[in-house]
Design a protein that fits this description.
Length: 154
């Protein structure tokens, strides 16, 4: 396996895992309950919420696939644009945090709007800020850190 693909794959697996774990923790903090059907909900983006929530292990596997596919796609995108846009080599921590905001905005304002999933509710700056910080630390910074390392930027 070539080094680029291996780095992107391992980074995508890491950020996908930390992202889903943080989603479970945030749902638990908000509702006091474990989100037993999180992957069913994710699959609802393709199947519709009613169908996905009634589904079993195959639907959960589809949701798991979609989750990691999206994490891998955003990881691959960053690794692809990193050498093309010199500004991205400014500061790995700041760029990672900003990339997480970009990912969140693209997901909320573009990708999720193309699915049959219900709208996430009214915009809340406080909720968005918390989401951006968590995504930055668990998603954006690891992607940026590994891209810097792969491309030899310090």
């Amino acid at each position: 396996m070539n080094k680029f693909f291996k780095t992107v794959l391992l980074t995508g697996l890491f950020v996908g895992t930390t992202d889903i774990l943080s989603a479970y923790v945030m749902v638990y903090i908000q509702n006091g309950k474990f989100a037993a059907k999180m992957f069913n909900y994710i699959a609802g983006g393709a199947l519709g919420l009613k169908t996905s929530m009634a589904g079993g292990p195959a639907v959960e596997a589809l949701g798991l696939f979609f989750h990691y596919f999206i994490a891998f796609a955003f990881t691959l995108f960053f690794f692809w644009i990193f050498p093309k846009i010199k500004f991205l080599s400014f500061n790995k921590y700041l760029i990672g945090m900003l990339y997480a905001v970009f990912v969140n905005v693209v997901m909320e304002q573009l990708i999720l709007r193309l699915t049959p999933l219900p709208a996430s509710g009214p915009f809340s700056l406080a909720h968005s800020f918390i989401t951006w910080v968590v995504l930055g630390v668990l998603f954006g910074i690891p992607i940026a850190y590994n891209a810097y390392k792969y491309y030899g930027v310090e």
